[in-house]
Structure formats: structure tokens, C-alpha cells
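Mods, move this if it's the wrong board.
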Amino acid sequence: MNQNLTEEEIKAGAVILIDKAYRWTSFDAISKFRRTTHAKIGHCGTLDPLATGLLICCTGKMTKQIEQFQKQEKEYTGIIHLGATTPTYDLESQPENIQATDHLTEAQILEATKAFTGTIQQLPPIHSAIKKDGKRLYELARAGKEVVVEPRTVTINAFEITKIELPEVHFRVHCSTGTYIRSLANDFGQALGVGGYLQALRRTQIGDFRVEDARTIDQWMEFLQPMTFVKTPKQRPANRKKKNFEE
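Not the wrong board. C-alpha cells:
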């Protein structure tokens, strides 16, 4: 995809592909882009801070397409660490419940993927941004409150093991929107009887958009540096009455 956009195209409406860095939030990425361009911008699907990879952002009139992009299927690659669990299902919390994995065979690991392929029921992590009674689940979990989550139906079209170096298992997943790869890692480890958590994650594709066509934020800043973006002043509605100082 051509990302050699002009200033006019970015302000009017464009699809921006960002390769999000490790430890950055999705908000961090679009905020820096917004501060530089003064463009209206939104992203099409949050990536956890510990994940890297493709973040689709829309500017200007293209923000109307955000929901459409969010619904598209996604592809991820990553590493599941077997033989331990974490409360957050990833490395945002410390591994616990350490178990041996040297008894696991390649055949057992490959066989276990079958239960997680197709249309399945999945429980989202209690440490997630899903809202319940107006509160984010992770806020309730951090406050020590009991969190009950409802299973959701997701579709995993492909769950491929690409390399096994126990306790690490490398994978590629192609799935529907709404799938939690952290939950997949936890459930996969549970199915093998040793526990598991997500050690690394990279989003490589959303619909037809691929991370190979994206720029990092630093690369975007370098690309935008020669441009001169002028902040568009907000227009006062024509029928709006000017307030007096006494009001």
C-alpha cells in the first residue's frame, strides 16, 4: 500500500499504517501523530502495550471507516511460554505455578491446537478493557473485586505452531475480531496440563493490510518532518450567540 501521502491527503482523510513499538500504547502512537499533523485521527483496534505490530489509523473523513476496519480478520505471530501462568495471561504480571514441560511431545502440542481451531467459546481475561457495569474489567481486578466474565464466540481460522523450543512455543494465528490471544495462550497451556502465558505478540495483518507496509512512529516522524502542518481553527457556529463576560 502506498503510504507516500501529502499533507492535504493526511488532513482530508487517509489510512495510516503504524508498526507499533513494544511498551507503547495505541493511544501513545496516535497522539504523537496527532500532535505533529493536527489531524483528526482514530485507530482501528487496540494493541496491548506488550504487543507490537500493525495499527491501522484513519484521519479526517476516513475516520468514518474505522468500524469497518475493526471488523476485519486479523493475523498474529508470537510465543506462548508453557509451564507457568500469570494473572494477566502475559508478562504484565509475574509468572507463577511453575511446572515441568520436558515430558511434552511435538505430537501432543500439535494435537492440542485442534481444540482451538474453528468457532469456539472463549473467556476474555479479567485484566482487559472490556466494560462491566460502567467499569473496565482491569480496574475491578486491580481493586481486588471479584470479576465474572461471560464467554464470547470467536473464530480461529488457523492456529499454526511454527517452532517448538520448550518451554517456548512459537505460533501464527488467523482469527476473527474480538479474539484474545492472551486467553488462547492461557487456555492452550491449560489444555496441555502445564499452564501457559503469552510471552510475545506481534500483529502482522488486518484484512488486506500488512505490517510490512507500515512505518514505525520514528519513520513516520522522519517522513512528516519536511511538511508544515497548520492547525485548523475551530469554527464558531453561525447561530451561536457570543457570551457576555458577566455570564
